[in-house]
Design goal:
Length: 185
C-alpha cells in the first residue's frame, strides 16, 4: 500500500463484512507528528484465537484466498515509521484497531486521499453501516457522519448517487486540508 488511506479502505471492509451497524474512523495528529488512525466497529468481533492469529499473513476469514495481508501490512508500515498497532476485539461486541505512524519519519506513508477513500467507502456500502469520521490536529478538527448527510438529503436520495458521492468527497477534502495539510502527500 502506498498511503495510509488505502489501509483504511481495507480495514473498513473488514468492519462491513463483520456486520457492523456503525464504523467510527478517527485520525489524530499530535504536535510531535504522531498520527493515530483508529477504526472502531460494533460488528461480530473476533474470537480470542482469531485475534491471536490475525497479525499473520497466513490468517484470513475469506474463503476466496488463503492469505490475509491487510492487518500485517498495516502493522509493518506503522512499525517502519516508528509507530505500532493495537488491536482489541470481543465476540459479539466489535473490534477496535489503532495504528500509530510517526509522520516525521522518512519511512512514513503519506496520509493520501482520505476524502476520495471515504467517498469510496460510503458508495460501496451506501445503506449500512453508518460511518463517522473525526479528524483532529493542532490546526483544528472536523467531523462527518453519514447520518447527518441522510438527514439533509432525506430518504429518497441514496448515498450511492454519484453527485452525492462527489459532494461528500469535496466536503471532506475542504475540511481536512487545513487540518492535515503536509502529511497528505
Amino acid at each position: 500500500m502506498k498511503e495510509i488511506a488505502l489501509h483504511l479502505l481495507d480495514i473498513v471492509q473488514n468492519s462491513v463484512r463483520a456486520g457492523a451497524s456503525v464504523v467510527e474512523i478517527g485520525f489524530d495528529l499530535d504536535s510531535s507528528g504522531m498520527l493515530v488512525m483508529s477504526v472502531a466497529d460494533d460488528g461480530c468481533g473476533m474470537s480470542p484465537e482469531l485475534l491471536e492469529r490475525v497479525r499473520s499473513p497466513f490468517t484470513t476469514t475469506r474463503t476466496t484466498r488463503k492469505v490475509g495481508l491487510g492487518i500485517p501490512l498495516l502493522m509493518q508500515n506503522a512499525v517502519l515509521s516508528g509507530g505500532g498497532l493495537e488491536l482489541n476485539s470481543e465476540e459479539g461486541r466489535g473490534t477496535v484497531l489503532k495504528a500509530t505512524f510517526n509522520t516525521r519519519s522518512i519511512d512514513c506513508l503519506p496520509l493520501g486521499d482520505l476524502a476520495s477513500t471515504m467517498a469510496t467507502i460510503i458508495m460501496g456500502s451506501p445503506d449500512r453501516p453508518e460511518f463517522h469520521l473525526r479528524c483532529h490536529s493542532p490546526e483544528g478538527e472536523m467531523s462527518f457522519t453519514t447520518e447527518e448527510v441522510r438527514a439533509v438529503l432525506g430518504e429518497d436520495v441514496p448515498l450511492s448517487e454519484p453527485a452525492v458521492s462527489g459532494w461528500i468527497q469535496q466536503s471532506i477534502q475542504e475540511e481536512i486540508e487545513p487540518i492535515f495539510g503536509g502529511i497528505m502527500r
